[in-house]
Specification:
- The chain is an alpha+beta fold.
- It has nine helices and four strands.
- Helix 1 packs across helix 9, helix 4 packs antiparallel against helix 5 and helix 6 crosses helix 7.
- The longest helix has 17 residues.
Amino acid sequence: MTSPAGTVPPTAHVEIWSDIACPWCYIGKRRFSDALADFPQRDRVSVTWRSYQLAPDTPAGLRKPEIEALVEIKGMPAEQVRQMFAQVAGSAEQVGLDIDFDTVIAANTFDAHRLLHIAGDKREDLLEALFRAHFVDGEVVDDRDALVRIAVSVGLDADQVRADLESGAAADSVRADLLEARQLGVTGVPFFVANRAVAVSGAQPKDVFVALLERAISDAESAELFPAEDADGC
């Protein structure tokens, strides 16, 4: 539909709940970004990344390999965990991501989510850097020195970041995102919501995200859940 002359076309607002410790969120981010990059009306889409924690009880500073942590927490055999990770790594490779689960360290992601809220217009760049740090580089993303280094890599000021982390800044913003996720019934991530009316869950194929964007633009008032098949998520 063409907007009347002199009016601003309606904008689709996509909110994405994800966790830095979720590999399917990393994969879903890449697939969604590819869809948005090719979307003809991408300038009419605003994106807000929201916080979610898969394992909020993980002790900060645990520093255990993710494989070992899952064996302990989930009670799964180590070989089953390795097979599961190999399948995820294969899916990641298809979108150009080189996830190395042998280097992934279990972490509490609350401070990392705080940092994302603090990051302002660097937020998406920082999210990408945090995913890479956690899943590729073997960084401990609940270590504040590591978080400062990662923040500096995307152009944030080290002293300000450290001060914000020490002060507890943005903790309420993270908690608000977590509360909204519960209110929306989010039980797994990544979770994509357009205009608080249209939603898909999981690391969907690119064409599903394109359809989501088209639907969001054409019908921002719709309250109908987007009819997508289940996709992998955490």
